[in-house]
Specification:
The chain has 496 residues and is α+β, with helices and mostly antiparallel strands. It has 3 domains: 58-190, Beta-Lactamase (2-Layer Sandwich); 232-341, Helix Hairpins, CATH 1.10.287; 346-491, Heat Shock Protein 90, CATH 3.30.565. The chain is 55% helix and 18% strand. The protein contains 13 helices and 12 strands. It has helices at residues 9-19, 37-91, 96-107, 134-141, 184-219, 221-232, 250-301, 307-337, 350-365, 384-400, 432-435, 447-453, 459-469; strands spanning 112-117, 123-126, 148-155, 158-169, 172-182, 345-349, 369-373, 379-383, 408-415, 418-425, 473-479, 483-491. The strands form 3 sheets. The chain has a 5-stranded antiparallel beta sheet with strand order 2-1-5-4-3. It has a 5-stranded mixed beta sheet with strand order 7-9-10-12-11. β4 (158-169) and β5 form a beta hairpin. It is rod-shaped, with a radius of gyration of 48 Å. The protein starts with 8 loop residues before the first helix and ends in a 5-residue tail after the last strand. The relative contact order is 0.08. Bound molecules: adenosine-5'-diphosphate. Residues 397-398, 401, 425, 427-430, 438, 444-446, 450, 455-460, 484 line the site of adenosine-5'-diphosphate (ADP).
Length: 496
Amino acid sequence: MKFPSIWHPKISQLWVGRSQGLIVRQKLAGPPDPNSLQFRLTVGIAAVSAVGLGSLSLYTSMKMHQQLIYTHKQNIQYVADRFPRDVETYSQQLPLEIGLQHAIDESNTKNLFLWVKTADGNILTKSTILAVDRQEYTALISIDNQQMAPRVNAINDKYMAICSGTLVVQGRKLGHLYVAQDITSDRLRLNSMVGSLLIATILAIALITVAIALYVRRALEPVRQISQHAGAISAADLGKARVQLDCAPSEVRELARTLDIMLYRLSESWEQQRQFVSNVSHELRTPLTIVAGYVQSTLRRGANLTEPQREALATAAGEADRTIQLLQDLLELARADSGHIHFQLEVVMLNDLLSEVVGMARQYSNRQIILSADKGSHEVVADCNRLKQVLLNLIDNAVKYSDPDKPVTVKLDRQGSQVSIAVCDTGCGIPLPDQTRIFERFYRVDETRARATGGTGLGLSIVKTLVEGMGGRVTVLSKLDKGSTFTVWLPAQSAP
Ligand code: ADP
């Protein structure tokens, strides 16, 4: 038999999601998720800020370099360019060698050191006032003759700006002119300023990244709230569910409004489906009960029926009974979903109730059912009939899914403030992955086995709904081929 197509698996999942307490929660702690919007926005904005700040620092460093170093280079280049003209001017009145020395002395300012080398590497003339110490002097004059654009050389622990070129006066090649300037103090100042700038930039980037991370996290808080609200909504409270946000940006408020409208529509359609299931179950149950009654009475009275006719009628009666049970279960669940299930809560003495239930089950199943209870009397607040229905359902399953010669045990016990009623069998057991799903509607572990036992797949859903409706819970412990134990936990009425 096919179940009604209106029972959409997603709707059923939604219901189960709530019933199993599966509420979506945003991870607040732990490592950041690289796929999250928060992570991507933070990294993106931080990267842009880093590039911006880095470029600014680079530009500032270049400017400082220009201010402190480049001017020195320009200065020595200027001295080197002007030098031949000065020599020419002096040598018009004086011998060339003396004019040369005059020109050097004239150009010699603080920190500036000039010298001229002949083609074979001998010093022709040099500044008389030494702007450098002996060691640097030796290192400087040992530089080979070559054409050199202004550049900074590290000599010992000093920084020297140096340039050189061929010295030609009045068309005569006199040798090689060198101009050097000690720029150590400016170079050290530049190094320290660039170092400070680098540290300040790194600190600023780190601070900006933290600030951005906090800001993005705060900005995305409404989205997280929507996600939490949506995760906590179940089919049961679809109608009342509203996504409420405090101080959210208008785009997110718009999204929440749209979600509210969607929830409203969903609740309407869910309500219609529930109503439809309830109506269909109700409308079909009565005629089907009549049909089943006729078939059974025909079977009872039909002495002249042939064997194949008897078999066909017996099958029809069995299927009709199963369908009536299914409709009954569906009606029950539809009532529970719409909150129309009422519990007549009263103080129930479990010892008496269990004796009654076990007695009924023994008669009905013709199986060995052992009742094991400690000496104390256990009272709970529950609906007596509903609790009987729950226990009969669990015992029925234990009987169905275990060998006929194996006993079923019902144990009554107390653990702290809870009273437990365990229904244990030594049957086929339930595989671990199925244990979390057997309370879902229409979920069956093994379709062929369930078919043979005639179940509807709704029994445990009803058990769970009823037990939770009475303020309790139901758990399962099972091992494949060893057996299962279903335990109903209810709050005890009196202190232990
Ligand atoms: P059904 O009407 O099919 O028994 P239930 O909701 O009562 O539906 O149970 C759901 C499924 O859980 C069953 O189909 C069966 O596979 C499994 N199940 C329930 N009780 C037991 C048990 N005592 N031992 C093994 N399997 C069980």
